């Protein structure tokens, strides 16, 4: 009983990994999710993936105590239900029970970003810190707070929606129904959109040349980073502006949560200092010095593995905690 | 051992109260703090006040298990030290130890606003709610979050400084060193200041008549509320603007903390619907509907007693919790 299995069930891929008691990821396997084929198809596939993972690792199922899985969207971790996950097209799916039925193991689920941040907090960039604010910059902007080693959920497990703080500088409409949400600009999508809109309005940029006749819709945040490195004034302006906005949003989060450390992950973290330098400058100006002085800022260390290790460790923690006995028995 | 003593040590008065196990305040006594005479003088007075409280209540000291005290400013509740309290002129004062030495009882201290919010959460307007955001509008603007019944402290016990979130609409310099902090406008002081500055610039107001030759410096937030009731356009504008700013600040707090309920207390809460109606309207527009739909907003019920009951109950909780054995023995 010394192993846990961690999973990241994403819109594109499912990744399963075998994790030991120290949080070390020993083996992992990945398959396309194919969520368009329905949730039963995905769960059957997950059942087979876990068998395969055990065979490849040379581990008996009896040596595995628990499965933890991160899924996107709104989750009820107590009931083990994925309430709504847009990019899986899942509504009210009993994820924990379904995986438990196919594996014979207790299963805990949680939001994928929380599990990513939990992994970084336990075994990655925030190892040893008690108060961890983790953010992921990807298609959107998500965040999760760990306070005294405990995940902070709030009412309805809805805390930490940094991406939906409003910014007067932003005029984009958001999928949530509001206008001006931070993630409409501070995200991979948002960075590309800012550049694209200026280019549509006739702004010169080296990125015009790279499109080679393709539509401006093809532009990505990675293109903007590349243009930044080539000294393209538009790309520099967009990443500076995005970093400034992120710094302002984080200032509110730091003032309310008082973290020791901010860990920045997700695909957007690949922009690195192009984004983080202006973010840091703005954040320093926008918080009381007592917060800034005690704050560490780091990029994530574990990349894609953070969610797998985090969900495996969180599941192990929940299994052993009598206070939160929420695992699903087959 | 069925009683606790709760205290509120403020810049103006010290209040001590006897609280039973159900959180009912049975007796209280109040004296001026006279902090200018030094902390030893204040602690000697507190020792005598507690003797007097017991005599008046007809209770033996052996029936009291613990003392809890709220003090303003930055507190280390684990070490029992008031790190810095500007309006008491205290720096690094060993408050818990000093009171314990004079009373022979274990003493726990905490920030006065946290204790006020804890009192309202346990026995006041937020009774029965798990995720409580409490704010006090007074000389400044302070907040505290209770999550799953647990006070949220963050790194350095510094979480919840809602008053120091920056607002682009605000241009006042704050005592903390920044410019544009929410509390420079959303506070009793801030409300009076907004009205005063416009009157200094020649803006007409019924409040000019009320001053009767006194300087505009004499203007208070209560005057602005009174002028609002008289239909004074300046007062209406100031309270609408202040409510709107509070709504924007609370929107960030709701999005990050996800409370079930917001409790609004402090002297500024006396402005009531004059302030809360525009606050509510702005908040509804500025948060994702999933937060708004689950949110209750109430004014505090216990007024000045919340801090006394809260500190007594928190001290009782800490005394009985093996996880946080932090009380000071004489």
UniProtKB/TrEMBL annotation, chains A, B:
It comes from the Bacteria. This is ROK family protein. InterPro entries: ATPase_NBD, ROK. Belongs to the ROK (NagC/XylR) family. It comes from Paenibacillus foliorum. Pfam families: ROK.
């Amino acid at each position: 009983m010394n192993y846990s299995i961690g999973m990241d069930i994403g819109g594109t891929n499912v990744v399963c990994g075998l994790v030991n008691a120290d949080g070390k990821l020993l083996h992992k396997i990945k398959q396309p999710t194919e969520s368009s084929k329905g949730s039963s198809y995905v769960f059957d596939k997950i059942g087979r993936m876990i068998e395969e993972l055990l065979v490849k690792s040379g581990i008996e199922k009896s040596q595995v105590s628990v499965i933890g899985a991160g899924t996107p969207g709104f989750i009820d971790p107590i009931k083990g239900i994925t309430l709504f996950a847009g990019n899986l097209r899942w509504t009210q799916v009993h994820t924990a029970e379904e995986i438990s039925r196919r594996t014979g193991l207790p299963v805990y689920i949680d939001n994928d970003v929380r599990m990513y941040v939990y992994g970084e907090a336990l075994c990655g960039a925030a190892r040893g810190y008690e108060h961890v604010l983790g953010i992921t910059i990807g298609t959107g902007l998500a965040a999760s707070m760990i306070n005294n080693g405990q995940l902070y959920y709030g009412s309805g497990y809805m805390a930490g929606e940094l991406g939906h703080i409003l910014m007067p500088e932003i005029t984009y409409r958001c999928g949530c129904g509001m206008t001006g949400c931070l993630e409409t600009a501070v995200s991979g999508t948002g960075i590309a959109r800012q550049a694209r809109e200026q280019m549509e309005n006739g702004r010169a940029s080296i990125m015009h040349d790279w499109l080679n006749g393709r539509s401006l819709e093809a532009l990505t945040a990675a293109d903007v980073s590349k243009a930044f490195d080539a000294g393209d004034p538009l790309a520099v302006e967009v990443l500076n502006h995005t970093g400034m906005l992120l710094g302002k949003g984080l200032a509110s989060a730091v003032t309310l949560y008082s973290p020791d450390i901010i860990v920045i992950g997700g695909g957007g973290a690949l922009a690195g200092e192009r984004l983080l330098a202006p973010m840091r400058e703005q954040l320093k100006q926008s918080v009381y010095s007592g917060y800034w002085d005690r704050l560490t800022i780091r990029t994530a260390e574990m990349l894609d593995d953070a969610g797998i290790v985090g969900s495996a460790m969180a599941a192990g923690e929940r299994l052993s905690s009598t206070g939160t006995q929420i695992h699903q028995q087959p």
